[in-house]
Structures are given as structure tokens and as C-alpha cells.
Amino acid sequence: MPYGDGMNARVRSGERRSEIVGAALEVIAERGYRGASLAAVAERVGLTQQGLLHHFPTKDALLVAVLQERDRWDAVPDTHWRVDLLASLVEYNAMRPAIVQTFSALLGESVTEDHPARAYFTERYARVRESMATVLRTEYGDLLPNGLTPERTAPLLVAVMDGLQFQWLLDPESVDMPGAFRDFLRLLGEPVG
Known about the structure:
Blueprint: H1 3-35, H2 38-44, H3 49-55, H4 59-74, H5 83-93, H6 97-109, H7 118-140, H8 150-170, H9 177-188
């Protein structure tokens, strides 16, 4: 196979993998991980299940690709996070309900012992709490205006962000996710415009 043909095949394969990951996001958002099937994802992208397995040999491999893709979309180097940027992230999430729904469905299912994303979410939350503590320490020092340390406040910050997402997904007309998060920042002592 000439070099150009091999390069084109890799590009097409990468594009197809991206298409499959996008379809998997949709199917998981609609049905949850356990209810999602490789056949449903394959059908959505016009492949047979065997064709899909060429790109992702297992459902777990596809799940990992979905989670990695979602993290790539939200990737900001830790040194660039600030408390006010967290409010922007919440606003951004309010514009992409399908992604938030997929993440929330996977998170909810991952609390079971045998779920393939359990380790991913456990490790992710450890990193996120650490990152949030760093953000809070940079902003406030060793104590926030409310008297709590950044380490004590970080899990609360993460819980508010995720809890608001669940409430917003269930009743978007009644829950102003960005507004409620800005209210929480005021409780931390952050002036929010």
C-alpha cells in the first residue's frame, strides 16, 4: 500500500472512531451504559456490530473512549482554573445537555462494584478534588472567608456542581444551574457579577 493510501486509511479510521464515539455518547445519554448496546451504536453510524468491533473490540473499550473524549472537551490545565472560570464551565455545560446527561448517567451507574467506569470516576474525582483545592488555595489562601480550608471546601464545590447538573437535567425549567452555582460562589465569599 503506498504511503498516501495508508495515511488516508488512518485518517478515515480516526474519523470513523470519532463518529462512533459521538454515536455512543448519544446512545448512552438515551439509555444509560447498561442499556446501551454495541448493536445500537453500530446501527446509528451505519456499521454492522462486527464493523464497530474492528474499531472498539469491547463495550468497555468504547466506554473508555467516550469518557476520554468528554475529558478532552473540558480540558483546561490546572494552572489556568480560577473560581470565576468554574462559573463559566457551569454555563458552558448548560449549553450541552446531551454531554451532561451522558456523564451523569455514567456517573450514577458507576457506583456499582462491577461497573467498568468505577475506577475511572474514582480516580477522576480524586484529581478534581485536588485541583479544586488548589484553585481555592490560590484564590483564598489557607482559609476561605467561611473559615473552611480549601481541602474541606473542594468536595463541597464538586458536589454542588454535579448535584446541580442532576437537578437541572430533571427539571431545566425550574433549575437555573449557572445562577445557582453563582449563588454558591457567593456563599464561599466570591464576589460574582
